[in-house]
Amino acid sequence: MHYKQLTNPLYEWRLFSRLVRQRSSMSALSAIATVTADNICEEAALKKMIRSWSLAVLLLPSLAGADEAPSAVNPDPWEGFNRKIYAFNDVADRYLLKPVAKGYDTITPQFLEDGIHNIFSNVGEVGNVLNSLLQAKFKHSAEDTGRLLINSTVGLLGFFDVASKIGLEVHEEDFGQTLGYWGVKSGPYVVIPLLGPRTVRDAFGSVPDAYTDPIPYVIDYVPTRNEVLGARVIDTRASLLNAEELVTGDRYIFLRDAYLQRRQFLVNDGVVSDSFGEDEIPGEQPAAAESPKDADKVEKKDQ
């Protein structure tokens, strides 16, 4: 290598551009050491090369990472298939479930409708207790157990929500949230016939949830059991009648985004990242959402 090449800034830049494309700082340092040992003859040239190469090495991580910026992940890669299932579910809901729910809401006194809803919510506390334990949320599990015992006795099988009045909060948990708590990714969004929206993780989580539902164990007589399960579906649909007024634009996209945002909120126990109103700094990636386990550690430190 000629001495003039060593002192030529354009040549030095070309050399390190090639090293940047290799995306290896160790390779860059190794090349620096080799060229320096074999070809540097004068102290002035050495100082000049060190300055140029030091700058290149400092810029190497940012230049190499420019091509590696994470792209937004599409949460609904099966949208075409999902829209067809959604259309089927929408017809079934519009002509069957919704009219029944509206009739139930019309003829049932409000206090009775609230009481029935409270009973089904009290039954769901069993799943809340178990999944809180699986997520190592022992405080929540104790509170859920207290809610179940108090509402099942003083609250007349849950018809009256006495536990909320004495300060025991509801913690909605299911096995899909448990999987998310321990780091299982949600996977693509999927619409299941008659069951509605899920993610792949929540779809698998629905299986253990079915086995932790106490109704099949408490009611042995199949016709009565099916009537109770049907009543729960109608109660759930009736509770969503007023929320339908909020749906605007493309119903499929609105319901999909609402479902995914709610699931994220539940899995993270309300700890979500929101960059609205924050100024973006060029080249800086947004902070990742805090995991529920990290949130538990922060909460314990604050206490």
How would you describe what is shown here?
Helix content is 65%, strand content 3%. The protein has 303 residues and is an all-alpha fold. 19% of the residues are buried. The chain folds into two domains: 3-68, no CATH class; 79-267, no CATH class. The model is unreliable at 1-7, 19-47, 52-71 and 275-290 (pLDDT under 50). It has a two-stranded antiparallel ribbon.
Oligomer: single chain
Number of strands: 2
Low-confidence stretches: 1-7, 19-47, 52-71, 275-290
How much of the sequence is in beta strands? under 5%
Count of DSSP-assigned helices: 15
Tell the overall outline.
globular
Assign the structural class, choosing from mainly alpha, mainly beta, alpha/beta, alpha+beta, or little secondary structure: mainly alpha
Strand line-up of the largest beta sheet = 1-2
Mean pLDDT: 78
H/E element sequence: HHHHHHHHHHEEHHHHH
**Gyration radius, rounded:** 30 Å
Helix content: 55-70%
Our measurement of the CA-to-CA distance between the termini, rounded to an integer number of angstroms, reads 66 Å
As for the number of domains, it is 2
